[in-house]
Amino acid sequence: MNIEYLKYFAELAKIQHYGKAAKALNISQPGLSHAIKTLEEEYGVPLFQKEGRNVSLSHYGKELMTDVEDILDIYLRMEERAAGMRAEEKTVRIGTVYPLAAGMVPRMLRESGATFPFVIYNHLTPEISEGLLDGKYDIGFCSDLLKSEDLEYYPIRDSYIAVVVPKGHPLEKRNAISLKDVADYPQIMFSKTSGFRKLQEQVFAAEGITIQPVCSAEEIEVITGLIGNGFGISVLPYMDIVHLHNLVAIPVQTSIWKSKFYIARRKYGIRSEQEESFFQYCKSIGE
Q1: What is the CATH number of the domain that holds 107?
Q2: Of 80, 84, 115, 190, whose CA is between 20 and 30 Å from 242?
């Protein structure tokens, strides 16, 4: 079956004139005649009948016309879907943990000279790992080592716990600090529905400190806003976003919590040249 010949068949059935149909199809009239003759030989029946200078569908042609229209409709939908898939394939889908979303990932995209279209999604490490494995993301930036034989991952930077204070705070000039030094200041924490709240509680518990927060919030953007407006300070895993506000992050000396950020992807897959280049650039940062 030649899909182009079926298109010619449908166009000739509509226009009912070889010369005009050939012009509409931007082919020669002999080329159109050859296509129709080939179809008639293939199906073993005449598809058109002459009516003076025009032609019309034979009764065989009329019976086949419905099927031809269905085939062409399916083919058009398939072409449209394939075009969408090609456009999507060129778009690099990046999943990143929140600490890197506002600063490091955009900066690496700029420094690597990335010109490809991309989409950035913010999630926690488990969601990013799952998204990489099921093909939702092409590249992931994660805060924990992903234990999967189907993924490759490389460290790109260390993470740490920091005390975040507003500019002008008495602790602002400290290069490092202990949790005991900050325990008496009003504390802002993540809400109990956030995955980061457990981490905050653990680092204080490791120092034998119990904290009752003055307020809490689900999102880091809200917490940084509360800090900036003087409601308190917060002990947070390091996040680039604090530098986008009028805030200071002071590393905590005594925290037992240590972690790294990783870049990850599926071990096998079809990759664009620019996607591969960006991955290798990010990988080289941690080497």
Answers
A1: 3.40.190.10
A2: 115
The DSSP code for 244 is G
Same domain, 227 and 271: no
Residue 218, CA atoms < 13 Å, CB-side half-sphere: 1
Query: Is 9 found in the same domain as 71?
Result: yes
Radius of gyration of the chain (CA): 32
Structural domain tally of the chain? 3
Residue 52: enclosing H or E segment and its boundaries? none
What pLDDT digit, counting tens, does each position of 81-115 carry? 776 665 555 788 999 988 888 788 998 999 988 88
For 253, the domain range is: 161-257
As given in the structure block, the two tokens for residue 118 are: 């991309």
Phi, psi of 92 (to 5 degrees): -85, 125
**Residue type (1 letter), 130:** E
CA 96/CA 115 separation, integer angstroms? 19
Answer whether 250's CB lies under 8 Å from 176's CB. Answer: yes
The HSE-up count of residue 264 (CA atoms within 13 Å, CB side) is 32
Which pair of tokens denotes residue 42?
Answer: 């293939």
Same domain assignment for residues 120 and 74: no
Predicted model pTM: 0.59
Q: Is 272 helix (H, G, I), strand (E, B) or coil?
A: coil
